[in-house]
Every structure is written in structure tokens, then in C-alpha cells.
């Protein structure tokens, strides 16, 4: 267990800077999720913490000790890779014991620690198998086990669930969360899946093109997105954005308005804050998504209860939302109060 | 359903196969048959008549100290050539693998020696180490070392080993580099995070994962050292000094064409035929079960 502190961490590959300065203070035992679209620099940031990439600027400190120039093996971290990176020629037991063997841990203790991890991950029947004789989910568990047995002070995960099917992903997500709670090890977890981020994180870092747009608890990020990007990235279906001309009476600094589909409701034509025509409706059972074309030509998705009445397609309709749910952004995409 | 290309009639397929069949027959089956046949006879000194001796040639060979010495020489030579060429290739491949960027040029440069025929390579090395005009022996002389592979058996062996291995390094390098690059980067990184430094990673992860490549190259290089190094030895030492570099293949030539002992030479060929057959079987067995780990 340890704290992890990133101070204006930067990274360049040759002349191109891909991380433009990230700051975060991670408390002991906290589960932090880095989320963002493909190519925004999540893996790069994680790999810098792991020591697999050099740091171009700023400092990374584990438990107060700056580790910029410390080799990966001396950082007391463990990492779970997207493709698991198991040692193909070693059995499950040997895979988990590898790090301990190198650390010259006594044989009895290795056996004991691997046994505990194997029990925790339900891997006991497979200890003598080779990785290629395991299913995807089992391999994933072995990768977790390899990280657990070393009792590191920081866990790093790089999209550990992205190679699993949807059902297994949900199951493993719960297992990872439970495991982390039980072990209480500071964790940094990378994903591009916002559901994974929302459910796992104590706090999440939303990254956008090499910057941390927002750092906060999942609910805080959802309720109070700091930028237009964050508002659009977190939440499903995605937030509607439209120009102020679709509604009336906004300050001239407002460049874009954002309203989440679940925060809007239908109003009678001519009523509410904006007007449009219903293009089509998607009935999903528990909920219905109404796709509306605003008078300005912009699209608006509205989510309502599956039991609520739906206007006929092509009908004029008004859209309303509570004032405090409206998200206003300036021309740079920054949130306005 | 599997779709197969079939020929109507048998004339065309036969015609298409014929060149290969003829080449194999003329250059392999016929000489091999002749060798087996002749190995059972001893011709008289003028080659006018032959006396049937059964396995006499083989019995004589196996009790002949010179032939046994040649076996040992061949073993030493093959092991040295294999170890030197594979060791050098692996070392270079590991270096190239670390700086993937430069490896394109590196690779192209390293393939050159492979294109040099063994006899030419032999001449090349012979001139470099020539006791009177060689560049290397001249520099060695400056350093106070009197190089003379014409008289010194160890130096002769060393020279033919290096000359033979040199031509193989590029071939082995390409296979090793391909093998190294097939190892996922993340596996190496995982090992680094697990605490393994470079040498430990090499010993416990990289080398085991390279074992299919290594085994394949082992067989191929031994076959090479056994059979294809004739040109190098012929041009550099001609089997000397004494018998120090007379490997089995060279002895077939020396006894048969120089010594005119055709019966014994044929018997030696048959023994080599068995050796190469054995190596081929090992190799095929290996290819059947490619993956070792
Ligand atoms: N070794 C490298 N050399 C040059 N550029 C790189 C290198 N590695 C990553 N990049 C660049 O850095 C940026 C961030 O890459 P990174 O792998 O961190 O993205 P990511 O957020 O993990 O994306 P994904 O979700 O697709 O994994 C990308 O634009 C990528 O092209
Ligand atoms: Mg990534």
C-alpha cells in the first residue's frame, strides 16, 4: 500500500508531445480509473508509472519517493496487461511464482502465497496447466494472480478486460472490485469503457488528447462535467449538444448547451425550452429513446420511461429540462457556471 | 468440400515431374546406388577388376585409427562450427532486436556472407591468414604472435571453423531475429516488472521461448558442418596439417580421388548417407511437433 503522486507529468515521443502535463494525488488504497478515447495517452501514462516508458517531464512519486529513474523491478508495482502477457512455457503455478522466485523468497512461502492467490481466484484446479490450455477468463485470473502474490504497493491495469466477452467482462469487473477492496492496494486502472470506469472507480481521470480534463468521483464527473468533452464522453446515450439559438435567453458567452437524454422530457408543442420534430422512436423495453430534430437542424435524443406515451413520428414536440440540469459551455468547451 | 486440382490423363503430370525425377535419379539415386555397390568390393590397383569383400571395407574402416580420428575431428569441427555460428548469430540478433529501428540495414548487411560460396569464403579467409602475405597474420606478427596454420593443428582447426561459421552467421541470425521478434514485448515487460534483469530474462524467458528455433538451427547447422564445408576445408587446409582438419566428407574425397582407394571411399559415403538420413529423421520428427512449450 502506498500513495502515488504525479506532478505535471509529460511525455514526448521524438518531437511529438502526447501527454501534456498530468497532476494527480492518489491516496493509499484508492482505486483510480483512467478513462478516455483511443489514443488519448492512457496506456502511455500507465506505462510511465510502471517504468516501461521514460518520463519526459514532471515527476512520479510512489510513497513520496520519486521514481522517475527507478527501474520497473525496483518500483514495487505489479501490472496486468491487456493481452495478459503470461509466460507461455510455464505452468500457472510457475507463472505466479516467477516474481517471488526471482526475489529469492523461500520455497515454502512461495507455495503458501500462490495457494492463497489461487484459492482467491478459483485457480486451484489449473495450477499445473500451461496458459494455452486455459480459457480467456482463466488466463485473466492468472495474470491477476501473478500481480497479487507479489503484494506490491501499487497495482496497474491496462484494459485487462477488453479481450473478454461481454458477460465475462461484467463478472470479472465485479471480481476485480471485490479483490481490490479486500487487499486494499492502491490501483491505477486504464479503460476506454465508461461503464467499467463508473463502476470500478473511487475517482476517475477523464483524459482527452493527453490532458486530464477532469478528476473526480464517478458521480461528480457525471453530474458536474468540467468540459464539453467530459460531458460527451461520460454517460450513455451521449449528452445532446446544440447551439444556444435552439433555446432562448442565454448569456452571450454560452457557445454550446448540453443536456443529457435522461434529464429531458417531452412537452406540448410550443411549450418547454426547445422545439423540434420527432424523427423516430426506439423502444428498448424499460425505456424509449426519442430521436428529435431540433428547429435548428441539430439532433436531440430524449430518454423516457418505456410506459410513457410516444408521439407519432413526424409530430411536432416541445422539449423541456430542469434549469439546474443544463450544462453550458464556452467556445473553448469549458463549463460555465 | 475440398477442391482439388486434378489432371485428366497421366502424360502431363509425368512430364511435369520428369525433370526433378531425372535430376534426383542422375545425381542422387545412381551415385548412391553405385556407392553402396562399390562399398562391397575392392578394385585392383589398376582398376581393371574388382574383388567382392562383403562388409570387409566397413570392418576395415571401423578398425582403422585414421578413420576413427576423422570421426572425432568431424565431431569437434561440427560442434565448434555450430556453437560459434549460432552463438555469434544469437548475440547479434539480441543486439538487433533491442534497437529495432536499425535492424533493417543491419539485417541486409548481415545477409551478405550467406551469398558467398564456401569455396570463395575459404579463399578469402585463406588470404587473410596466409602465413606470408595475409593481412591478419601480419598484424598478429606485429603483436608478437607467429600465426602458422599450415603447421599448427590447432590454428588450422580454428581457421576452418571460423571460416565455415562465418558463412552461417547470417542465416542463423535471420532465424534468431525472427524468433526474438515473435516474442511479445509485453511478456518481456511483465518479466521486467516481476523483477528479472536482462540476463535473467534472457535465461528464463527469451531462451526457452526460442527453443524451437534453436533446435531447428542446431540440426541444420550440424548438417552444414558435416557436408557443406568441403569447399572451405579444401581451399584453406586441404585436410592438413597431418589429418587435423580431415573431416569425414573430406576423407571420402581424399581416400577416393587422391588415394584411389575407391572401395573404402564408397564405404565411407555409405556411412555418411546413414548419418544424414538419421539427421533428416530427427529434423522431420521435430517439425511434426513444432511447439515445444
Ligand atoms: N512508442 C511510441 N512511439 C510514438 N508514438 C507513440 C508510441 N506509443 C504511443 N504513441 C502515441 O501516443 C499516443 C497515446 O498512445 P496510448 O497508447 O497511450 O493511447 P491509449 O489511450 O492507450 O489508446 P488505446 O485505448 O487505443 O490503447 C498515441 O497517439 C500514439 O500514437
Ligand atoms: Mg492503450
UniProtKB/TrEMBL annotation, chain A:
UniProt keywords (A-Z) are: ATP-binding, Nucleotide-binding, Transport
User: Which is a Pfam family this sequence falls into?
Assistant: ABC_tran
Q: Decide whether keyword ATP-binding is in the record.
A: yes
> Any idea where the ABC transporter domain is?
4-234
For this protein, what is any one GO molecular function term? ATP binding
Family affiliation? Belongs to the ABC transporter superfamily.
Q: Which PANTHER family match?
A: MALTODEXTRIN IMPORT ATP-BINDING PROTEIN MSMX, OSMOPROTECTIVE COMPOUNDS UPTAKE ATP-BINDING PROTEIN GGTA
What is the name listed in the Swiss-Prot or TrEMBL entry for this protein? Sn-glycerol-3-phosphate ABC transporter ATP-binding protein UgpC
Taxonomic lineage of the native organism: Bacteria, Pseudomonadati, Pseudomonadota, Alphaproteobacteria, Rhodobacterales
Gene name as annotated: ugpC
From TrEMBL, chain B:
Keyword annotations from UniProtKB, A to Z: Cell inner membrane, Cell membrane, Membrane, Transmembrane, Transmembrane helix, Transport
Name of this protein? sn-glycerol-3-phosphate transport system permease protein UgpA
Membrane topology value? Multi-pass membrane protein
Using the record's annotation, list all stretches that form the ABC transmembrane type-1 domain. Answer: 71-283
Q: Which gene encodes it?
A: ugpA
Matching Gene3D superfamilies: MetI-like
Q: What is the stated purpose of this protein? A: Part of the ABC transporter complex UgpBAEC involved in sn-glycerol-3-phosphate (G3P) import. Probably responsible for the translocation of the substrate across the membrane.
- In terms of superkingdom, the source organism counts as Bacteria
